[in-house]
Structure formats: structure tokens, C-alpha cells
Amino acid sequence: MGQSIKIKVAGREYPFQVPTEEAEHYMRLAAEDVNEALGNYSTRFPDKELVDKLVFVAMIEAIDKLKALKKLDTSDRELRSLGSALQSYLESVTK
User: Fold this and answer.
1) Per-residue DSSP letters for 4-42?
2) pTM for the whole thing?
3) Between vectors from CA 57 to CA 51 and to CA 62, what angle results, nearest 5°?
4) Which of 3, 34, 53, 95 is the most buried (most CB within 10 A)?
5) How far apart are CA 15 and CA 8, in angstroms?
6) What is the mean pLDDT of residues 30-45?
């Protein structure tokens, strides 16, 4: 089934089941990123409540994910276009 681990985010521990060491590695990296971003917001906005800072972190992460998906889609389209151009070129030189 996997391994039980505990991840600390925003000062609280949460139990997780992870199927692989790779999944555990990414969970720990994600927790580090969230805690770092939360620390930055805590420094910049000390008077805000924890939930507000967590919303800031979630929004920035969601925005970054959407940007990455858009860039991936653009790269995929460019790769397909280059593949088609290469195929056309190869067909023209083999005639």
C-alpha cells in the first residue's frame, strides 16, 4: 500500500500515505516550498491571519501551475509543427 509519513506544513503535522520513495520526495519538496512561501508572506504581512497567508500561497501556486500548463501546451504545439515541417522536408528531399 505504501509508506506512512508525516509532513509539517504551517506548523502542523499531517499524515500521508505515499506509494513510492519518489512520491515521498515530492511531498517533502512541496511542503518545503509551501513553508518557505508562507514564511515570506508572514514576513511581508505579519498582521494577516494564517488562513489568509495560506490563500496567498495557494493562489500563487495555482497561477504558476496554469502558466506552466500553458507553456507546455505551446511547446507541444511548436514541437508538432516542427515535426510536420521536418516530415515535409524529408519527403521533399527523398523525391
Assistant:
1) EEEEEETTEEEEEEESSHHHHHHHHHHHHHHHHHHHHHH
2) 0.77
3) 125
4) 53
5) 9
6) 96
